[in-house]
Amino acid sequence: MKLQYSVIALAMLAMGAAQAGTPLLPSDAAAATTAGNVVYVSGSSALRFSLASGFVAMCDASTITVFGNTNGSSAPGNNVRGYACTLKTTIAPKSGGGTAFAAGTNVVFNKYDQGGSINGIQPLVLNTALSYLNYGACTSTGLVRSGSFDLTKIDYSCSQGNTVVPQMGVSDVEAATIQNVNNLADNVSAVATSTLTGGVHSVAMAGVAVNLPLYRALQAAQGLTQDDTEANAPSLPLTFLSTVESGNASPQNGTGFNALIPSNGAANATDSAQQAVNLCSRNNGSGTKAMHNAFLLSTPCSTAGLAPVGGNTHVSNTIGTPTEVGNNDATVTLNSSTGNVISCMQHATTDTVLTSASYYRNWAIGMVGLENDPGAGTSSDAGWRFVKVSGVYPSLANGQIGAYPMTYENYMYWPAKGLATKISQFAKWLQNDAVTPTALSTTPDVGTRQGILANSNFSITDPNYSSVTNWIARTTRSGSSCAPQQLVQ
After folding, report:
1. 484 within a domain of the structure (yes/no)
2. In 387-473, where do the E strands start and end?
């Protein structure tokens, strides 16, 4: 039976404190919010579970409750999540300065994912309020927990209605890169970030994904066994990927999939010369897209850098009806979330609509962060795969040493002035101390464990992390996404 927490019911529940060692109730989350024991974070969706893993590691595990925004008939938590618990450990930055929250305190950690990395910066400067969870309007999902705690599972779905300016934000790349004109949405201008403080937070990896029909076709063309092992993952060259993401790939000109897969002369979807280059892109404001732009297009890293196809102008964001580009033998869809990119690739697999130039749209390429898991070969197989980039597989091991090129430092920001002292202390802790190698290694989300690394400030020689050194980045870009990676440990 689902329990609906009305305002009256909330008031009744708030009369009694949660029992020690039991999961907090929505009323407890509401009471902690009212007491000011609450933090609001926005920005990069790639970091949603790595941030959460750092926070819940400080909790009495028996008290943790996970909340997500109501999402119709779909799974809750697609845009906003909240984590409430009684702290077992005091939260304070190791660099000193004071306690944020003491052990024994009920605290709520809120993370707003919608809008991507740009929301890790601009709302903090412009004082733009975002719609977080209303803990007075929550419904139990009926989840019965057993075994080890899984922070990816939602205990309550709640309506959005707590409108708050975020106190801190995260971005897949630094402010200068995400705010480049080629990474900004239409009618969005760059803002000065002189009022913010912060720095490198963690490390994330961006991937190139293809839907399963294209994956198998590439394997066949490259003489690989058609399985899902890393050894048999097909590879796409940088020159081809740059051509695709700048909108210049064309089977009519021999630069489409027929540049990689020999034409068999068939007048159907099995022939590479008859397949449109179908790109499922992220829209501007996405850190994943900014990483792709920086590496594949040298934008904004070079005056000779290429603009991404379509920008945000006159390009479809509707799955199944992409915009035709080039010779009407290539298509692009701008997607507001990674979930929509995946849906775009999945739709292509069974798409029966031809382009106006009579090309098929069944082979799709997508921009997907490595924190997403395709579930290859399992009952949850999503029908897409990551490919190698110029022969290098996007694995955690390759990202750790900089062998995989699309590996970038994430950044965290918060206002230098105006925050309550305890919130500033929490921000310092969240930036430098929260996303530890241990927290990442124990995160139940498979994707987080394959696409996020603790930054190189965590030393691989630290005895505290001797068993989890493979979750520590050994490289740095020294504060600029346009700088080459340097091995530092």
Report:
1. no
2. 388-389, 407-415, 452-454
Q: Which long-range contacts (CB under 8 A, 24 or more apart) does 29-36 make?
A: 29/65, 29/67, 29/82, 29/84, 29/106, 29/108, 29/135, 30/135, 30/136, 31/106, 32/84, 32/105, 32/106, 32/107, 32/108, 33/108, 33/135, 33/162, 35/106, 36/420, 36/422
Q: What is the largest CA-CA distance in the chain?
A: 75
209 and 90 in one domain? no
| Pick from 176, 411, 431, 413: nearest CA to 294 | 176
Q: Which two tokens stand for residue 29?
A: 């989350």
pLDDT, mean of residues 311-320: 83
The lowest-confidence range among 85-99, 176-190, 303-317, 328-342 is 303-317
Length reported for the chain = 489
Q: Which domain holds residue 60?
A: 1-113+129-164+433-451
Cross-strand pairs, 138: 158
* Element holding 333 (H helix, E strand): strand 330-335
Under a CB-based contact definition with an 8 Å cutoff, are residues 200 and 409 in contact? yes
Give the bridge partners for 65, in sequence order: 84
Based on the fold, state whether residues 305 and 372 are members of the same structural domain: yes
pTM of the model: 0.90
